[in-house]
Design goal:
Chain lengths: 556, 556
């Protein structure tokens, strides 16, 4: 199929409103007759005098330069306590002569970024070219398209990257593009509920697809219930006689809230079904680079290696592990995958920088939506991310005491360090949880041990110990509300499963879990305390709920 | 009328979709029974362990601190050349111990802003509390509500402020809130066309209202043709039988593109009509603080005054002048004004920080839209703006060599300096334009001399010299396309009036102008060159167009 045919085929996925989103290009000139065109081509574009748009000249900006101190070093064994000697790098954005605090020897890394490129309107409403370029380099670095396979290398040229102000904005744009009253999106039965608000705004429909909560790395089962998905799409009208046939599917492959991870093989199974039924896949993956295994960061057989060789070993290990749960893009022969990423979980949520990677047809439509809606993204945010990312290389070279490394290896080291910290946090919480009376003696819960990400799912053993709450959606909702009361009573803020279901009538039997994250806790001591209190809250819940000692009436 | 009655009445202005925008508050807890509530109130909220949301702990951020050098000093007479001794202030965000370049004596102003408040999720999706607080202080400082009048002081408490990622985003949210297929918005016949894209997305309708292009400061005429507006709203069905009756009006009071300014009296006239016909007013005012008069910055009778007293004099002058063209909020007895501001033109567009001030009913609905769509705004952008704004006070104190000034006087000095620069730029362009042969000898054009803002409107004398182009919308479009060809041939990028009209059939007779801005030019020399080339381009246009010497065929 030619690109044109393909694009014609993609047209059917668009919201009927898409063609109404149109910004008259008042800033454009032309069309030009031939003889004028020739003349204009002879002019020096650098000498053009710009009287057209209200872009303040750089002399009119108060901020003359910005210096940023950042690190690659996240400390080592003691969660929450940074190492004694934190190696930092300083970079400077803007005119050096305005920085009083700088001498030549201080200059670690000069970004060469003029201040106006941060504070003027960006060169594009969908992100600074420099930031897009950086993400394209990372796509190559992480080998999203498996360029080692010839076909995929060819395929890559049909994709494009745009920057957004985070995945919330991305999901908003995507649902605006793809949904209307005649379209349905499939969503994992438990999810991050903002997507529902996005869908409702479009008048579109949604329906859940099932998770397999028993999938583990050991048993190798797919965390997506692919059998259900296949049956659902084969017999749509019998499941949902009043909803239009689905045109897209939304998945968080390192699942929020359950922490279940789709391996590359699992994604292939889901992809094959979507391909068969002409369903687009929105892959929302903010956690994919946080790898929770011990092996990568352990020095194995590395004693006789140089720091540089040890790093290369670790890097190869890390990249190989990521490849075992590779993006849907890596298998997207049909151009039906739209991938969302974010720097929120791997750099800083306050920056508001996210990314969409998809085929050019959809990216063009997204650019148009951005033009017509929110337009630009923060210049300081984008530039700080760029410069930090490149600055990580300076830090890594210093750390490894070498002059040359592969470009952006510093970013990989950062991600490995970050993964290590999350793994440490996870280990502390898990081992403390497994030490509680509630677990050890009473078997009141079990945990889904995630291999990626920052969430942990504590499944209550309701089937055996409180089977009556499984009778209806309402009884489950009440039960988990009581669980939440007990958590709050122990001064714990967590989220119970019933609040993360998109259709409780569909999913209530599986909703007996608590989602916790290790990201926010202050350190080791607090994580241990959290586990202890979680254990007690769960014990009290089982002791009290629906017994004479139930302390509180449940309000919904 | 009580607030409740008022809110009930406001309900009618909302888009029918507004109630569909709803985010399930999965992060909230409760409702609680009484006995639990009592218990929870006894707990220490600071000791609550947060396991609920994926907010990375501050130890997981790479950036440890940010130092910013900024100035209040924009140089004096030579546009484009900063003064020799630019006074700068440095502030630091985050942990000082990570900044290698700092010694105690370097510390001009310590922001006391911890790094996590920049890089974590913000405390609200509609802006950091600290930034909202700052804008509220500015509202008081600039006396938007004319608090000197008792009633208005009372009125103020019904209003609220939210932060957005700029006025483009604000206008997108506002149109989403207010428009659907059953609603019409009135828009100035010439405007910044992004609003049209916003409106189209909602299925809403729009219609132009007329500008009075002959209004000047001297003749005191209202730049809004209030007679037309009144007639239009009194006889809507005869003007637009197929469009719903208007529910809101969009105005740029320091008009883009014409540069026409609505004084306080003019706004009262427009307000009275809108009030009478139950029409909301969206006031989009990014230029209102850029005051283009000589007087403020001139030292008059100040020779014998201290620098501090001279500043106070200038400040009072400046504020008085602003009051002569005060916000619609100052007269908004009905709560029907929604005001948009932006820091783009007075600080830096790349920051992406804008503001909406409106009554609480509408602000609540806007907060909900933000929750359901784009969510948060850049932390570094908001914090840098806050700290620069407060840092201006440090600079001003140093400049005036006093220990105390009124808080945020520094920001006023900044705005006065900026106004002065724009005025200088404007003067250079205008005096050079008035010196061209095209103006002096041939009277080919006249200029609207703006008293605020950054735009300048060059009206071509088509009525006398090319009356045939006034015959139809098409002939005007072709004529101005030829004008654009001539501008481009002279390596000038400007925007011709026909491209800024929202309904050319309605406005073609007034479209014979060129919008230029002085913001973007590099300096004095370039502005003089621009005027020279503008003059030549206009001469050639009149010499050639529709004569045998016409060089190019016109393509549309």
């Amino acid at each position: 199929m030619t690109i044109e045919q393909k694009h014609h085929q993609f047209q059917q996925y668009l919201s009927r409103k898409d063609s109404k989103r149109y910004l008259p290009a008042f800033w454009e000139h032309g069309p030009f007759p031939e003889n004028l065109n020739k003349k204009l081509n002879l002019l020096d574009p650098k000498k053009q005098i710009l009287l057209s748009s209200g872009v303040p000249n750089k002399e009119l900006f108060s901020i003359k330069n910005i210096s940023v101190n950042h690190t690659l070093d996240l400390g080592h064994e003691n969660v929450g306590i940074p190492g004694d000697h934190v190696l930092t790098n300083t970079f400077h954005i803007g005119d050096e002569s305005f920085s009083k605090h700088m001498s030549t020897k201080d200059k670690d890394y000069n970004s060469n970024v003029p201040i106006e490129s941060v504070f003027e309107y960006a060169d594009q409403t969908y992100g600074l070219s420099s930031t897009i370029e950086l993400f394209n380099k990372l796509v190559t670095k992480f080998n999203y398209f498996r360029e080692d396979i010839l076909d995929n290398n060819q395929r890559k040229i049909n994709y494009e990257t745009i920057i957004t102000s985070g995945t919330s904005a991305s999901c908003f744009y995507l649902t605006q593009m793809l949904l209307d009253e005649n379209k349905t999106i499939l969503i994992e039965e438990f999810t991050y509920p903002v997507i529902i608000a996005n869908v409702n705004m479009t008048d579109g429909h949604y329906a859940p697809f099932n998770l397999n909560m028993h999938a583990t790395e050991e048993n190798g089962q797919n965390p997506i219930d692919v059998e259900y998905l296949n049956t659902l799409l084969s017999n749509w009208d019998s499941f949902y006689p009043n909803k239009p046939y689905p045109t897209c599917l939304y998945t968080i492959p390192v699942q929020n809230p359950t922490g279940l991870v789709q391996s590359s093989e699992h994604r292939q199974e889901v992809y094959d079904i979507c391909k068969k039924f002409n369903v687009l896949i929105i892959e929302d993956d903010p956690y994919g680079n946080i790898l929770l295994t011990d092996e990568v960061n352990k020095v194995k057989d590395n004693e006789d290696k140089s720091p540089y060789n040890a790093f290369v070993n670790q890097k190869n290990d890390y990249l190989k592990k990521l490849e075992s749960a590779a993006s849907y893009l890596s298998i997207d022969t049909e151009g039906i995958v739209l991938r969302c990423e974010s720097v929120s979980k791997v750099f800083a949520p306050g920056l508001r920088v996210g990314v969409i990677i998809a085929n050019k047809f959809f990216i063009d439509r997204l650019k148009n939506i951005i033009e017509c809606t929110t337009r630009e993204i923060s210049g300081p945010s984008m530039t700080m991310f760029n410069e930090c990312c490149y600055g990580m290389d300076v830090l890594l070279k210093r750390q490894l005491q070498v002059d040359n490394i592969d470009r952006l290896d510093g970013w990989i080291q950062w991600l490995m360090n970050l993964s290590h910290r999350y793994k440490l946090r996870q280990d502390i919480l898990l081992s403390s949880l497994y030490n509680t009376k509630a677990y050890k003696d009473k078997k009141l819960f079990e945990c889904i041990e995630p291999k990626f990400g920052m969430f942990l799912c504590i499944k209550l053993n309701l089937e055996t110990l409180k089977p009556q709450v499984l009778e209806s959606s309402l009884s489950m909702q009440k039960c988990m509300q009581y669980m939440d009361y007990k958590l709050l009573e122990h001064n714990l803020s967590a989220i119970v499963g019933t609040k993360l279901s998109i259709d409780l009538d569909h999913s209530y039997k599986k909703s007996g879990f608590i989602r916790v994250t290790v990201a926010q806790a202050t350190g080791k001591e607090q994580l241990q305390l959290a586990a202890h209190e979680l254990g007690k809250a769960i014990e009290e819940f089982f002791d009290e709920y629906l017994t004479p000692s139930q302390e509180y009436e449940v309000l919904l």
